[in-house]
């Protein structure tokens, strides 16, 4: 075959591939999309992901299926997404843990939270709260601090896992309030809350939406919120900063990520639809009732936010001395 003929065949082949690939992008999505939640059902991330997935299904015209892959502080689910095809059909509901904390906390990660993911959109954020079992004889934050100082190392606090936002918030609280609490890590927020409700542990630092219904039902007592302002859902509960630990502030957040090599056109489509979802009055109201702030951002804004958060939590991890193999 002559070189000229070979060149023509190559050009035609490339053109055909481009047309096929372009056609695939044009109809995206043409089948259900999987949204991996790297924590068990019922926890804070799951509570955020499900209404987002439901609304996104309507916008995309295809079902967005929530796939819970808990374990290792979110790393198992994140790793599953990294190893998936970069075609827009497997996404991750990333968290402050998977994309800001774990890089500093874990000695070995099977993925790079920056290089192995394509940012899609920041979704929401919420305060972390200190809740206690009603049997604990502390009605206020100051009473809790006094009790913890009198029972050094005896009061237990649970978290969604070692290095989770709740754990590190608790470690920062221990240092700034000068108290000694015993940390009890769980495989996700839901089982920790279950034990807190049962009285197996006495306290917990966790995103507000996971415990709000139990507080309103009188099954748990909220002593303070970690954000800079009070909760709209429970305005009588003070911030931890104003209640006795000046300067104290942390927040939990959630964002959607895709595998790094996902085509820009798909990222743009996903971002457009997610931002629409996060700005819709219906979803805003649903999240507001849980005291969650709906956001929505550009991919570049999420990347810049993540960089700032990674630096902040790296300092927190180093300060706490926490590490996970």
Counted by DSSP, the helix tally is 12
Strand count, sense and barrel status of the largest sheet are: 10 strands, mixed
Order of helices and strands: HEHEHEHEHEHEHEHEHEHHEH
Category by helix and strand content: alpha/beta
What would CATH call the architecture of the largest domain? 3-Layer(aba) Sandwich
Mean pLDDT: 90
- The first-level CATH class of the largest domain is given as Alpha Beta
Taking Cα atoms only, what radius of gyration do you get, to the nearest Å? 22 Å
Q: Tell me the name of the CATH homologous superfamily of the largest domain.
A: Bordetella uptake gene, domain 1
What is the CATH third-level topology name of the largest domain?
A: D-Maltodextrin-Binding Protein, domain 2
What is the topological layout?
Elements: H1 3-26, E1 33-37, H2 44-60, E2 64-68, H3 75-82, E3 90-95, H4 96-105, E4 117-132, H5 141-150, E5 156-159, H6 165-177, E6 182-185, H7 189-198, E7 203-207, H8 208-216, E8 221-225, H9 240-243, E9 251-259, H10 264-278, H11 281-288, E10 292-294, H12 299-320
Parallel strand pairs: 1-2, 1-3, 5-6, 5-7
Antiparallel strand pairs: 3-9, 4-7, 4-8, 4-9, 4-10
Helix pairs in contact: 2-10, 4-12, 6-12
Task: Describe the model.
By secondary structure, the chain is an alpha/beta fold. The protein has 2 domains: about 30-125 and about 250-320, 3-Layer(aba) Sandwich (D-Maltodextrin-Binding Protein, domain 2); about 125-245, D-Maltodextrin-Binding Protein, domain 2, CATH 3.40.190. Helix content is about 45%, strand content about 20%. The chain contains 12 helices and 10 strands. Strands 1, 2, 3, 4, 5, 6, 7, 8, 9 and 10 form a 10-stranded mixed sheet that branches. The radius of gyration is 22 Å and the shape is globular. About 45% of the residues are buried. Mean pLDDT is about 90; it is low at about 15-25.
């Amino acid at each position: 075959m002559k070189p000229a003929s070979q060149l023509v065949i190559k050009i035609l082949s490339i053109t055909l591939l481009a047309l096929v690939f372009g056609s695939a992008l044009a109809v995206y999505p043409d089948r259900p999309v999987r949204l991996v939640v790297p924590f068990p059902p019922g926890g804070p991330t799951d509570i955020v992901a499900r209404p987002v997935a439901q609304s996104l299904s309507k916008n995309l015209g295809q079902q967005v299926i929530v796939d819970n892959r808990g374990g290792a502080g979110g790393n198992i689910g994140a790793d599953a997404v990294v190893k998936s095809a970069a075609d827009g059909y497997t996404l991750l509901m990333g968290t402050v843990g998977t994309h800001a904390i774990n890089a500093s906390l874990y000695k070995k990660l099977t993925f790079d939270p920056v290089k192995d993911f394509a940012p899609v959109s920041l979704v929401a954020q919420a305060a972390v709260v200190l809740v206690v079992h009603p049997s604990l004889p502390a009605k206020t934050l100051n009473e809790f601090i006094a009790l913890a100082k009198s029972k050094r190392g005896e009061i237990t606090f649970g978290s969604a896992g070692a290095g989770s936002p709740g754990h590190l918030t608790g470690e920062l609280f221990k240092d700034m309030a000068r108290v000694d609490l015993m940390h009890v890590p769980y495989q996700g927020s839901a089982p920790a809350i279950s034990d807190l409700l049962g009285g197996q542990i006495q306290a917990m630092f966790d995103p507000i939406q996971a415990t709000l219904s139990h507080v309103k039902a009188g099954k748990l007592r909220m002593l303070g919120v970690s954000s800079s302002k009070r909760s709209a859902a429970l305005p009588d509960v003070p911030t931890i900063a104003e209640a006795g630990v000046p300067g104290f502030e942390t927040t939990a957040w959630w964002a959607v990520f895709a595998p790094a090599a996902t085509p820009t056109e798909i990222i743009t489509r996903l971002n457009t639809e997610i931002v629409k979802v996060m700005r819709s009055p219906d979803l805003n109201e649903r999240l507001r009732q849980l005291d969650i702030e709906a956001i929505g951002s550009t991919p570049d804004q999420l990347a810049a936010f993540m960089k700032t958060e990674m630096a902040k939590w790296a300092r927190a991890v180093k300060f706490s001395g926490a590490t996970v193999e």
